[in-house]
Amino acid sequence: MTAMWIDDDTISDLRTRLRATRWPDAPAGTGWSLGVDVDELRDLVAYWADGFDFEAHRAALAALPSRTVQVDGIGINVLVAPSTAPADGPAPMPLLLAHGWPDSTWRYRAVLPRLTEAGFDVVVPDMPGYGFSDAPPQVLDVRQVAGMWATLMTTLGYERFAVAGGDIGTHVARYLALDHPARVVAVHRIDGGLAWPGIDVSELSPAERDFVAATDAWRNAEGAYAMMHRTKPQTVAVGLTDSPAGLAAWIVEKLRSWSDCDGDLWSVYTRDQVLALVTEYWATGSIGSAMRMYHANAAVPPEQSARRVEVPSGFSLYPGDLVTAPREWLERTTNLVSLTYPARGGHFAPIEQPESYAGELVAFLEPFRQAVVR
After folding, report:
1. What's the predicted TM-score (pTM) here?
2. pLDDT at residue 373 in the model
3. Sign of the torsion formed by the C-alpha atoms of 324, 328, 332 and 335
4. Are 113 and 189 spatial neighbours (Cβ–Cβ below 8 Å)?
5. Which of 37, 143, 190, 279 could lock 166 by a disulfide, CB 3.0 to 4.6 Å apart?
């Protein structure tokens, strides 16, 4: 059986719970201004219960090139998609893709064919406690996960490789480059992270100071979820693990807020794409273990945030993302060799704009192909 599977009993129980949802009231005309739009969510939940094709979703999961690999005693679900480029072309380039929250390998599935056709051996693991990977016995932070991914790549036979990431994955990619620079040939990221709390702004440029202010404003307007994850994740995990409608609310609201969709989620995603992600969170019961990672990340020593990445770094900064770091910040924190601004896309660019994202990644990595020896 594939490493990615959802059984009949789980689906039956999910449908029963969805049909029995106890809905909150909502003041007239508030829409999404107070969080999730209850009327829109009610429609989505009704479709989830009686319209979503669970068999098609299971078939799609079964078709993915997934396997389970033991890394440091933890079962890691990983997609391993070898290059499909002509054999007489350049040697395949190993590429590790690092996801964030609230997602999983889901973020990158749409770009796998594009990247393998371009000559990449693509490796996409679910972080411990996310997707179909096992939850770790102790909560891991991004630096520890980066160390696990270095081990994973060794296990898969790749000594040197490129890495790309976004959201929490941007930090995993960063620590791979910081702690294993001899193995990482290049780093591609779709965000520059957020300015860390307590940074001394006196030495920053005006653009960087604006970035710090924008980071603070974003945290005040949108960051309550992250504070909950960092401080009391188990409290909210009880409700989200028991109520599929609650789980959908927690995830769908972020997809809408963080995507380049002008407030219309369905202009970017299909309902089936969104429900594939939420169904997998539900079936694996992984929302609590995924949120707990924020608690571990908050304990990473502040001096780690100030380390500069010397591995060649490239950024594709999409207009719909949370906060856009200026060039000065990227030059301060990385060995910046490429910076582009695609026309459309947001926080989940690989699934929002797969053609654009794959093109950005291929173009950035092309000069580094010769540096990789398998």
Report:
1. 0.96
2. 52
3. positive
4. no
5. 190
